[in-house]
Amino acid sequence: MLASASAPDAAAVRRWTGLAFLYWFGLVCALEPGNLRGGLPPDWTSEIVRLLGAGVLGSASAPALLVLARRGKWIEQALGVVLLAPALVVVSCLLAAWLLQGRWLPTPADVVSQLSANLALLAFGLAVFLGIVHLAQTRAQARAPAASPVRRLVERERGRITVIDLDQVRWIESQGNYQALRTPDGLRLVRRTLASLERELDPGRFVRIHRRTLVAVAHVEALSPLTNGDAEVRMSDGARLRLSRNHRRALVDRLDACVERPLT
């Protein structure tokens, strides 16, 4: 099975963890003059510990933010920030109690005070850093050369290795966590999502015709309109598949590219 492209590699985690330390250390340093003007006592030992602790604690959130930036939709990213911010505040209270106050646990009043004072700022800082990571990943993906479409699928399951030649695949239909690939020898099952499989295929050879179906363009024999605006696709093996109206244009364009006279 092809490796997942959604998990950040170790080098990226180390790089972003280091950048996160500098980001949070710099952010807290930038706020320090305001704290001093606000009348907070300049206990420099405590201040240095607090600054370093902010950098370490912020850098600990970097792996989670990397995963959110790469895999999550915006609603998942927002929820991740909302959940991560109070968790970091509570952990910072624990560290302050251990390192600065000589106690095992912070008092409830300390936790409430820190949540009230820093939760919004921390959530904002997390959101900004998440945006930076997302922007950097988007630009890196845009600069990266496109991967060559695969010619064969290698499926590994329970110690068994199966090689599927995509030249033999007529059409692909989603069946839950598995995808059924129709070949002259029958159905071959692979365990992955249809979307991830589609990204690996040559778009010039395979086209989505329905949310659950991909077809090999070379094996499409005819299109027949249906009364509801959809159409029926007849394949070379005799199969008749539903063509959604939303995907009709893409299939017709691909078929037009394969013949001398455009289809109507």
Structural commentary:
- The structure is a single chain.
- The chain has seven helices and ten strands.
- The two termini are 39 Å apart.
- The protein has helices at residues 10-37, 44-60, 62-71, 74-99, 108-143, 194-200, 245-256, and strands spanning 152-157, 160-165, 171-175, 178-183, 186-191, 206-210, 213-216, 220-225, 231-235, 240-243.
- 19% of the residues are buried.
- Helices cover 52% and strands 20% of the residues.
- With 264 residues, the protein is an alpha+beta fold.
- Helix 1 (10-37) packs antiparallel against helix 2.
- Mean pLDDT is 82; it is low at 1-6.
- The strands form three sheets. It has a five-stranded antiparallel sheet with strand order 5-4-3-7-6.
- The protein has two domains: 10-143, no CATH class; 162-256, LytTr DNA-binding domain (OB fold (Dihydrolipoamide Acetyltransferase, E2P)).
- The protein is elongated, with a radius of gyration of 27 Å.
